[in-house]
Write a structure and sequence with these properties.
By secondary structure, the chain is α/β, with parallel strands linked by helices. The protein folds into 4 domains: 2-29 and 45-81 and 636-666, no CATH class; 85-220 and 603-629, Rossmann fold, CATH 3.40.50; 323-522, Rossmann fold (3-Layer(aba) Sandwich); 531-595, Immunoglobulin-like (Sandwich), CATH 2.60.40.10. Helix content is 25%, strand content 28%. The chain has 13 helices and 32 strands. The strands form 8 sheets. It has an 8-stranded mixed β-sheet with strand order 17-16-18-19-25-24-23-21. Strand 11 and strand 12 form a beta hairpin. It is elongated and about 160 Å long. The chain starts with a strand and ends with a helix.
Length: 667
């Protein structure tokens, strides 16, 4: 027991007042002489003993009244257990609906198991149904309605997403913490091994959660799948297009599989491949004859296993003519043009058609017609052309600049107007040359261009790298390649020339992939892909396209975005397999194929000992759970004391009235 305001207990000192008046200030009768009592009426005098009993009762009533008042204002309380939220229990039934649940009758078995769990619960017990794939989806509110719960279970169908036990644990922990309820979690799943998080600690559910697992698959079932397909998103020469498919055999013996390349529903080519036991095999198709425009393609196998959904892999390609590339150079210098053209035409899939022009002829070309423009060691440009070029780059165009003697004489870089630092020159003889010592292999221009340490640079024309990303440096720290944004467009500066004079770069094998990857990156060809995985996001609009509507047409030719989302959404997430059409502003259309995550193709379950450990760690200690749920809160006794005060006041009034009536009678 305690007191909220213990200083009010000092009021107990007031009990001295009635004691003083009742015990110390008693009125004593002084006898007086009187001649005769014959004329007085006879009366019965109450005894001293009886009068004192009534006096003590009044004193006790007044003392109780004062004591109770002092205790009431001191705020007495006692600690008692209260019904906390953690004492509530919730039966949470989670059904796995990931892509692997499409195998055989797993989904139907899972539904029946979930219905059996719900049927065994007490009628008054709260229950909730949820579905699990990449996230936990609550299908009902906590309820005792058996019909609602059963309908939610029967409505669950497998999706194309992968399951994540780590996400399940995180979501259930959050629900237990927010609601405070003790959750009995029943997970009905095929317990796929690939659904486990990287660390076992990510499976922790907390002390309020008890876990019961209901596997619907006990063994690792064999399965064949088209694991991946490498295909170009854009095709400019169908005869040079290459499609490479990887076929995997999981949890079973090897077998021979028939692999087919299909485009627009038509089988173009068929090959046979031997898939080893628990291994992979690769198939390559050396051409992809498709019509102009977007074509829906896929690679199929004849596996006839228990999971037919992964027996095909979809991808989308676009056939178009090579895009024009404007190559501006000085009229007296053609060596750079020769090497650059040869590298461009030597690419595996040439995406650009080079259009040469001398600096004097550049005025007759409209820069807006060229997605990529190359300025190769140019000293002067026509003023009107340079202004149009600047505006074109700001609007989203791309520019590759190569520096050389002519650029050094100009003093400032074309378009960017960056000041050129002192040109550095070294003789060809001896060791007097520079090499690239710091190269960023993550940049698209350098990803496939290996062997930079063997390239000799005799002359460089450096600029300040302020505002740009340096992706290659020489041994002395001079920026060699700078990638910089310019408005909505991009500019890549190469601080040397392509003429085999300022360097010997054109003679090295890395020159061809550098040229190909650089122009493809500037032309945004590498931003497109032939296929994505379910759960991926795509950017719908750039900062310059804010407010412009973007339509997303789903696999069933239906709009995937509302009108408001089409005008404002920045990204879109693919949650189903199939082909999606993106219709952007300025007729920039795109087709994307989406496939289920092939980690779902591995039908091997989690080992039993791991599942048992997960269940045991979710049990927790009963004492700890009880302690967490046994909440003790102060219970205020003020109202009860005030009732006693009122009773004491009534008693004091009654006793005092009786006492005063006796006093009047005696008088």
């Amino acid at each position: 027991m305690g007191f909220f305001a213990p200083w009010f207990l000092a009021g107990l000192a007031a009990v001295a007042i009635p004691i003083y008046f009742h015990l110390l200030r008693q009125q004593l009768a002084n006898p007086r002489p009187f001649s005769s009592l014959m004329f007085f009426e006879r009366s019965t005098q109450s005894s001293i003993r009886h009068r004192r009993l009534r006096y003590l009762a009044l004193l006790a009533a007044r003392l109780a009244l004062l004591i109770l008042l002092a205790l009431a204002f001191a705020g007495p309380y006692v600690l008692r257990p209260v019904a906390s939220a953690s004492e509530r229990s919730l039966l949470l039934v989670v059904v796995d609906r990931s892509f692997s649940m499409r195998a055989a009758d797993r989904m139907e078995r899972a539904r029946q198991e979930a219905l059996a769990v719900l049927g065994a619960r007490p009628a008054a017990a709260l229950a909730q149904v949820a579905a699990l794939d990449a996230q936990l989806h609550l299908l009902t509110e906590p309820t005792t309605n058996a019909a609602e719960l059963s309908a939610a279970v029967r409505s669950i169908e497998p999706t194309d997403e992968r399951s994540s036990f780590g996400e399940l644990a995180r979501a259930v922990r959050a629900q237990a913490d927010s609601s405070g309820a003790a959750i009995e979690l029943h997970l009905v799943s095929d317990m796929q091994r690939t659904s486990m998080p990287p660390g076992f600690a990510d499976l922790a559910l907390g002390s309020r959660v008890r876990l019961r697992l209901h596997p619907v698959a006990e063994t690792a079932e064999p399965n064949f799948a088209v694991e991946s397909v490498m295909a170009p998103a854009s095709i400019f020469d169908p005869a040079k297009a290459r499609v490479q498919a990887t076929i995997s055999g999981l949890n079973g013996p090897g077998a021979r599989r028939t692999v087919s390349l299909v485009a627009a529903g038509k089988v173009l080519e068929t090959q046979t491949v031997e898939v080893p036991e628990n291994g992979r095999a690769t198939v390559e198709f050396r051409s992809l004859p498709v019509p102009y425009g977007f074509t829906r393609c896929e690679v199929r196998i004849d596996s006839a296993d228990r999971l037919p959904g992964d027996d095909r892999f979809q991808f989308a390609v676009e056939r178009a003519d090579p895009r024009p590339l404007l190559f501006v150079h000085e009229a007296r210098e053609s060596r750079s043009l020769l090497y650059f053209r040869s590298a461009l035409e030597s690419a595996q899939t040439p995406a650009f058609r080079l259009q040469p022009a001398s600096a004097d002829q550049a005025a007759s070309f409209d820069p807006a017609r060229f997605p990529v423009i190359v300025l190769s060691d140019v000293e002067a440009l026509p003023g009107a052309f340079e202004q149009k070029l600047k505006q074109h780059i700001r609007d989203g165009g791309a520019l590759l600049i190569a520096g050389g003697p002519a650029t050094a004489r100009r003093g400032r870089l074309p378009v960017l107007e960056e000041k050129i630092l002192a040109s550095r020159y070294a003789a060809r003889t001896g060791e007097r040359f520079q090499t690239a010592s710091a190269v960023d292999p993550a940049h698209p221009s350098l990803r496939l261009a290996a062997g930079w340490e063997a390239v000799k640079f005799f002359q460089v024309v450096p600029i300040e790298a302020a505002g740009g990303r340096v992706i290659a440096r020489l041994a002395d720290g001079t920026p060699l390649i700078i990638d910089r944004a310019f408005g909505e467009g991009r500019v890549i500066y190469f601080a040397s020339s392509f003429d085999n004079i300022a360097n010997d770069f054109p003679l090295h094998p890395s020159f061809v992939p550098f040229v190909e990857q650089t122009v493809n990156s500037l032309g945004r060809l590498q931003q497109r892909t032939s296929s994505l995985v379910v759960g991926s996001f795509v950017e719908l609009r750039s900062s310059a396209e804010q407010g412009q509507a973007v339509e997303v047409i789903g696999p069933e030719s239906s709009r995937a975005l509302s009108l408001e989302e089409a005008a404002r959404a920045q990204t879109f997430q693919f949650v189903r397999e199939g082909f999606y059409e993106l219709r952007r502003a300025s007729n920039r259309n795109e087709m994307i194929a989406v496939n289920a995550d092939r980690r779902e193709s591995d039908l091997a379950p989690v080992p039993q000992e791991t599942l048992a450990l997960w269940e045991n760690t979710a049990e927790g200690k009963p004492e700890a759970s009880q302690a967490a749920g046994a909440t003790r809160q102060p219970w205020n006794l003020w109202w009860y004391l005030m009732l006693l005060v009122a009773a004491a006041a009534l008693l004091e009034s009654f006793v005092a009235a009786r006492y005063l009536s006796i006093e009047r009678e005696v008088a």
